[in-house]
Structures are given as C-alpha cells and as structure tokens.
Amino acid sequence: MRIRLLAFAGLRELLGASERELALPQGARVRDAWAALAQRYPALDDLRASTRLARNGRITTFDDSLANGDELALLPPVGGG
Amino acid sequence: MFRIVREPIDPRALERVVRPGDGGVATFLGIVRSRADDGRPVTGLSYEAFEPMASREFETIACEARDRFGDVAIAVVHRIGDLAVGEISVAVLAAAVHRAAALDACRYAIDELKRRATIWKKEHYADGASEWRPNLQVSP
C-alpha cells in the first residue's frame, strides 16, 4: 500500500520535502512507517519521543494501523503564537 | 472566525464576532519581537502551519473556553509566512457580557493555541543563522 507523508518545520527540512509517498507492506502500522523513514534518515531516531503524528488529520499513535491512501503527518513540537 | 492567513492581520477585523449583548472585549496580539529568549537579535520570523488541523484546533479551543467561562464569542487569526519585527503574528479576541469571562477566555485561548496548534516558527537572527523554536511545554 501507499501512504502520503506530510512533514513540517525541522522535519520537513530533514526529509527535504513537505510531502512524499511511502510504500509499505499491507497491514503496516504507524510505527512501521516511522521505521521505514528512520532507516533512510537516522536523525529521526532522536526525534521519535518529541514528534506527534496525525493520521488523516487526527492525532494518532505508533500502534495505529494504516490503510492505503492514508495521510500521515509528522508534527514536531509546535511553536505558534 | 478561526483563520490562518498569509497577509497582515487587521486586529479590528476580529471585532466582527462581537455581539450586541457583549459589554467586555479582550484582545491579545502577538508581535514579532527583536530579541530571542536568549537575547540574540532577531530580524524576523517564518511561520508555517498544518492548516486544516490548526484551524480545527482553534475551534476546539473556543468550544472549551465556552465550557469553562460561559457565553463567550471568540475569534482567532494566525498569520503564516515571513514576518518582520513589529508585525502581528496572532490575534485573539474574546467578547462576553462582562469583562472577567472575556479576559479569562482570551488568556485561555492564546495559552492553548501556543501549546497545541499545529503551527511552527523559525527565528532568523542578525548573524544570518536561523532555528526552529518550539514553545515551552509541560508535555507534547
């Protein structure tokens, strides 16, 4: 299956794009998406604890399962205001 | 009125939400300041947002403020893009029958926005460096 990744702020810069596709095996969970990314971008390992994730616009957890066509947003610590 | 905008914020525009029965209006404006928390001179800020989540969070925060403080009308507008020192980055308005609820709701809304809204800021320093700066948080 394929999901759409969105990345913001420092994570967007680390990944070199605000948006990209990621191919994952059927039945993959959020943590598998993260692991696939961390393999390509080892700097993500240190950011896992501080990063929140949103699946289709709602905050999710590493345990949540993914479906084809999902949008997964990587949200670093916020700094609005 | 819950918006993410790219153009300069006109704080008077938020007054549109004020109702005839409101007797107190509290407004908070966040302004780009010339020094970082560590004292470094700042030339400007760049904001970005996950817009659909951020504007939905503004609405959620406003609902919570009404639960806590009663019948309050709230407007939240946050600007994104590149801002210069002195420009308004965020405007929050709360209006209620009396001042206490307006002031409390305004404070609640800006505090929760800073804690939760999916918005990020990068500080640009006078020496040419720049850094993403998260708000201080108790927990993510």
In short:
The complex is a heterodimer of chains A (81) and B (140). Chain A has helices at 9-15, 30-40; strands at residues 2-7, 19-23, 52-55, 58-60, 71-75. Chain A is an alpha+beta fold.
Description:
The complex is a heterodimer of chains A (81) and B (140). Chain A is α+β, with helices and mostly antiparallel strands and 81 residues long. In chain A, 22% of the residues lie in helices and 28% in strands. Chain A has helices at 9-15, 30-40, and strands at residues 2-7, 19-23, 52-55, 58-60, 71-75. Chain A has a five-stranded mixed sheet with strand order 2-1-5-3-4. In chain A, a hairpin with a 2-residue loop joins β3 (52-55) and β4. The relative contact order of chain A is 0.30. With 140 residues, chain B is of the alpha+beta class. Chain B has a single domain, classed as Alpha-Beta Complex (Aldehyde Oxidoreductase, domain 3). Helix content of chain B is 26%, strand content 36%. Chain B has a four-stranded mixed sheet with strand order 1-4-6-2. A four-stranded antiparallel sheet of chain B has the order 5-3-7-8. The A-B interface holds A 6, 8-10, 12, 49-50, 52, 54, 57, 73, 75-81 and B 30, 47-50, 52-54, 56, 78, 89-90, 110, 113-122, 132-135, 137, 140.
